[in-house]
Amino acid sequence: MLEYIQKLDTVLDETAIPPVMRVSQKFSGAAEEEPAKTLRIRLREEFTQNLRGKRIAVTCGSRGIDRYFELLCTIVGFLKEKGAVPLLVPAMGSHAGATAEGQVDMLRHFGITAESVGAEMRSSMDVVEIGCTERGMPIYVDKYAHESDGILLFNRIKPHTSFRGTYESGLIKMLVVGLGKQKGAETTHCLRYENMAGNIEDAARIMLGKLPVLGGVGTIENGYGRLAEFAVLTKEELLSREPALLKKAFSLMPRIYLDEIDVLIVKEIGKDVSGTGMDTNTIGRYHTNAAHGGPIVRKLGILDLTEKSGGNANGIGLADFITNRLYEKTDFEDTYLNTMTSGEPNSSRIPMILSCDRSVFRACVKLCGIRQTDDVRMVIIENTKYMDTIYMSQAAYETNCGGERLKKQGELFDLEFDEHGNLINLF
User: Fold this and answer.
1) Could you tell me where the DSSP H helices lie in 269-427?
2) Sign of the alpha-carbon dihedral angle for 116, 121, 124, 128
3) Which end of the chain has the lower number of beta carbons within 10 A, N or C?
4) For residue 154, what are the CA distances in angstroms to 72, 198, 224, 388?
């Protein structure tokens, strides 16, 4: 592989990379000022039933939720205050290699352990079949959640990267897919993403009728990836209130204020950023026909994989070019298992692999269809979760549609790369 990579580098040597400027993007900055205090009050108001001695399963997902540890500890503290016995149950579908140990390890990346949170961790991939939908889809639930006296759902609510529906990423999906573990996630996805929204809702209605679900805590993040608000929902409110929360999450999402981008470089992707490694709603590229929206991106390059992703590089298939560094960090067993469970291989196809960051930049510029370097609308982002600071070429900045929501933070400069061709001094 190294031989062909070196030959490609020589082909790209004469391609110039446009200079860029640092740009700040303004999004909604709505934020919850005292989340732990407010959450504690809301939990006391909503869950007044007697929980003394009851074992309550609290779902723990694989996403990098803002204030994750703090909010989880608050939930656990409230349950103990009520005399209940909280149990932390990893609820990640097939993520982390679809193993009980892998899912515990993923939570450890977020600082969440039985010792740090003060509650027993019950992790297993074993499930119990509790019913079947009208479409013939069996419904599964984690065995520990099934054995518990109550289930409290905890998850971030946001638009899904692969489909549109009344319920996308949130508490209802956590119930059906997260607690369904690998088997449940696979059956929910098996009828293609076009039917995903219906599958989730059908299964959720049956699960809510059969399982001792107390309710849920759903968070919404602002355009800076920070906690904007949360909702504490009772079991009866889950189906009725989550759709409005999803719309609110849509309105707060960060974006790139361009309708067309010639070159988009994403510094890192990962499961802790998005289920598809990077938010498809932001980059305008999708691996299914069940979702749409976002900018038109001519060429897309990805440079690296987050440590917290644990080798899962789901999402690389949306890129045109990746670095050899990213390729070598990819755990293909984990990535492919995740893809096989979701039912759509497009998200893990292998793009062209290049030696270093500089070559990825050059390849994107060379093939974006713009002859003059100064005319290339190039954007560089750290990841799709944090986009308040990005970098733009002059052509990109001049054609942005953000108006006063974009502000130049300096003059144009040439990108710097180290002796290995890797980008330095940006994020």
Assistant:
1) 280-283, 324-329, 332-342, 357-366, 394-398
2) negative
3) N
4) 8, 22, 21, 27
Instruction: Give residue 188's pLDDT.
Output: 73
Tokens of 299: 């060429």
DSSP one-letter string for 330-374? --HHHHHHHHHHHT-GGGG---EEESSHHHHHHHHHHTSS-SSGG
Convert 360-373 to b/e letters by CB count within 10 Å (16 or more is b): bbbbbbbbbebeee
Domain coordinates in residue numbering, the chain:
2-27+255-424, 35-252
Q: What is the pLDDT of residue 30?
A: 83
| pLDDT, tens digit, 9 for 90 and up, residues 298-316 | 999 999 999 989 899 999 9
pLDDT tens, 365-424?
Answer: 999 999 999 999 999 999 998 899 999 999 999 999 989 999 999 999 999 999 999 999
Residue 85: beta bridge partners? 55
- pTM more than 0.85: no
Amino acid in the structure at residue 303: L
What's the fold here for domain 35-252? Rossmann fold (3.40.50)
Taken as a whole, the chain contains a residue count of 427
